[in-house]
Amino acid sequence: MRGSVRGLIADLVEGVCQRSAGRAAAWTAGLTACAVAAATPVFAEWLDVRWRTPLHATPDEFRPRQVAAPLVAKDGTLAWFATARGLVALDPRDGQERWRQPSKEPMVGQPVVADLPTEGTAAAWGPTLYAATLGGRLYAFNPTTGAPRWSDPVYLDAAVQSGLAADSRFVFASAAPAMLLAMDRGTGKPAWRWSTLVDRDYVIEGQGAPTVHGGVLYAGTATGKLVALSARDGALLWDATLELKDRSPYGDVDSTPVVIAGARDAVVVATSQSGGLCALATDDGHLLWRYPGEGFGQPTVVPGGILVASALGELHLVDWKGRRRAARKLAEPIAGAITPIGEGLGLVPSERGLDVVRLSELRPLLRLSSETGFQAPAVVAGTMVLAVSNHGVALGLRVQPGGGLHADWR
């Protein structure tokens, strides 16, 4: 490993997510919480469902599952939910609906709010909320009122099933198969398109979104690679193979890349089907280290390292050099990314509910059980944790402290 990477590790900022929330209330129908037997009284926490808001008037078994995490405004006053029937804005504090924009096609990826200085038409708009549908239509809204910026959505002629990213000029999307698009923020028209050939019949396309950082767009592809493109014109800067081709018949990289920036260098981390968790140098894409594993999901940066889970229900905490700090097998398969919800705590979605774990030893503390389960990652909104069940019910949760939560949550 290069000295610059060692310098990066020394410069990485800890204390990424020291947020949590406050006191208990009545449980809602169909949801029960139970303390895991391993939890001792001194470490016992309690999940508290403060509000429960269905995002659809009636559940629909034939609609896609809720896989997109809510997006929360910087000031914490609004949360936007991309659903199988459109976009819904709620107040995170009480779950009250603020506005709704229906769509004929499912929105399965997380939207993005762009508020950076822009050129052209979008410069006069202020912050704009962008969302895309599975049928390849791009929408732009006023994030506060839900008023459309365009008279009609822009048709992209590509299936968008992941979250979006944005910089000062463009909105970026991953599309199937192995395609990346950049759209003008003012008009929505495609500015450039990059794609690569997928030489097999069967492709697993996940919900991995592109990441833009320092004028570079990073994204995983169905060819088993992580690519770095110029955000300005889509020129390929480098690509790196993450998959171990002799171990996986599919070879997809479906996670959203995470860029960890230090004072002297930067590292991008991502996972693949058989290649495990990989860390690469952002300047040329060479592999810094690989943490082996099968079926890893979205990596999450937490104090002291990187947290990653497998579909088999395994949790792994990896340090900045790719060494295991802790690992544990949970009782249920893990369906989505882990969310840090307080000082030393994480919220793990699964097919049976939500688990609270202590990150230092990955010890489960309790579970909020649900018949429908959770796949979308939860998010922290001030003193509230927002989660969405697979059937599109939004929950506002709090955690009663009892074992080391941040003082603001007491």
What structural category do the secondary elements indicate? mainly beta
Query: What would the principal axes of the Cα set say about the shape?
Result: globular
Oligomer: single chain
Q: What proportion strand?
A: 35-45%
Q: What kind of sheet is the major sheet?
A: 5 strands, antiparallel
Number of helices: 1
How would you sum up this structure, described in words?
This protein has 410 residues and is mainly β. Among the domains are: 19-67 and 327-410, no CATH class; 71-197, Lipocalin (Beta Barrel). Helices cover 2% and strands 41% of the residues. Strands 1-30-29-28-27 form a 5-stranded antiparallel beta sheet, with no helix packed on it. The protein starts with a helix and ends in a 10-residue tail after the last strand.
